[in-house]
Amino acid sequence: MLLISIVIQLKTRSTDFNYAFTQADMKGEPVYISPPSMIGGFLRDKMLKINKRIYGQADAPRMWYDKLRAGLEVRGFTACKADPCLFISKKVACIVYVDDCLWFTRDSKDIDAVLKSFKVDGDKYNWEIIEGGSANDFLGIK
């Protein structure tokens, strides 16, 4: 995709989803943990129910991917059958690497529209997205 973007002069942008794994909702059996000892004695006999995924849980990466995939599909993207981390819409392509995305398009306004839609949904779906520079900036290419 990077080579294609150079050859046909696509516009690129990078993004990072903050706290990606913790944005994914819990599914399945509830998870409970003991409160940290530093909180104090008043919770000593209590358990805390986890409502969001946390780093270190075995299924946290998959739950995050499922959430992001659903968010992209709602916006007209389809996952590539050969590479499920490549999503393509009519005007924009997106490569996902864990919580980082590289966006490719002929007109940067198309990327702007997709990212704006994530920000508009931010409160409802907990999308915390930080925009970076181009793919060159993301990769450290000068």
The H/E string reads HEHEEHEEEEHHEH
Q: Major β-sheet, in short?
A: 6 strands, antiparallel
Low-confidence stretches: none
Helix/strand-derived category reads alpha+beta
What's the total number of strands?
8
Strand content: 15-25%
Question: What is this structure, in a nutshell?
Answer:
The chain has 142 residues and is an alpha+beta fold.
Task: Describe the fold and architecture.
The strands form 2 sheets. This protein has a 6-stranded antiparallel beta sheet. A two-stranded antiparallel ribbon has the order 2-3. It contains 6 helices and 8 strands, in the order H-E-H-E-E-H-E-E-E-E-H-H-E-H. By secondary structure, it is α+β, with helices and mostly antiparallel strands.
Provide the fold topology:
Elements: H1 2-7, E1 11-17, H2 20-23, E2 31-33, E3 48-50, H3 60-74, E4 78-79, E5 86-88, E6 92-97, E7 100-105, H4 108-120, H5 122-125, E8 129-131, H6 135-139
Antiparallel strand pairs: 1-7, 1-8, 2-3, 4-5, 5-6, 6-7
Observed structural traits:
142 residues, alpha+beta, six-stranded antiparallel beta sheet, two-stranded antiparallel ribbon, elongated
